[in-house]
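Here is one chain, start to finish.
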Amino acid sequence: MAKRDRIDVNSFFSEIDQTQELYNLREKVQSLEEELSQNAEREQQLVSEIEQLKSQTLNPKEQEQLETQIGALRDHLKGTQGVVKYPVNQIHRNPDQPRQTFDEEVEAMRLSLSKEGQLDPIILFEDGMLFDGECRWRAAEAMGWETIDTVFTVRPQDNKTLRRRAYLTSLHRRGLNALDKAETLVAIACDEIPDLPHEDVPRIVNRVLIRLKRKNQSLGDRLHLQPQEEQQRVLEELELEGVEAQVFLVFLGLQEHPASLNRNIFPTLNLFADLKGAIRTQRLGCPQALLLNGLSAQKLGVTEKQALKLRQKAIKEVTSQNLSTSETRRWVTEQKKQSAKNEEAGSDSSVEARNERVDQVIHIIRDLKLKDALPIEQRDELKTLLGNVLAQLEEMV
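Its structure:
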């Protein structure tokens, strides 16, 4: 909703005869204008209070207060604007929304909407971007709704502010999985520091932590608890490069624990693409995914295709059996042992298992020199035969 300019009531009536009727009308218009202005100020106050809460680390009581304020803003918007039916297909999510994993909550919301209907409107910015109610919108979209009850509020100043606030909101209200959190924190750091490559952020945090550890064994685990002045003093003593100090201060400013980010959060950025996908669509836990990341072709001594097939099997096993971290670790260990046995057995029997006819074919192909032109018919026949052999080999992998 765009900010309104106040009506100049005196100018509006300046050229009109001031009869009693017009005077009364003038008073009503002025009173209505003051009421609208008060409503706008109330809305801005609520938005400001909500944003202030979002920018803090919240205890349970403060988190409840945030929910109450969002409810108050929704009620205020309903009272001053009314609820509108807005087309579901014209709504778009915040592209900087940290949260990417919604399956479980959306399914629960679908059941609620089917049974109870929509109890609360979603809140949109004036351009149709979501401010609050993404699960309701996703559920409505999945159910084929054409419209959804909506109220509107004013959008923050810029995308950088919006990303930071969206991160803090998701973190304090619902919690983020480690992968979503890692990707968003890297994006926030790159927002704050122009031209900083995304891949450099985790490396910088690791480098600074190593230097902190050399200076004081436990300092890296306590620095986020220190006052800002102390944080800056410690980093200055390390004589860091400018960008290193900047990155570290960004995370300290978000009240994040850099050592914990380095150990538990940023490693998810190095997960295989299939594991990242499973986190977001198959409810695979991030700790389990990090363990399954050890099922690589290099570590198992197999082909990439075989490793991918084993990880797919692992994802199904972990999610269907709801394996804990320790259970997943044991499962991965057993797979690695089995792979080592298979590799050893294959090595021991490699000479005995060779097929003499295949060796003859290999010898013929190796010595085949296609310097002279071949008839088209013969060329096509050879290509077909070799293609069939390759296809059979692929099926045997």
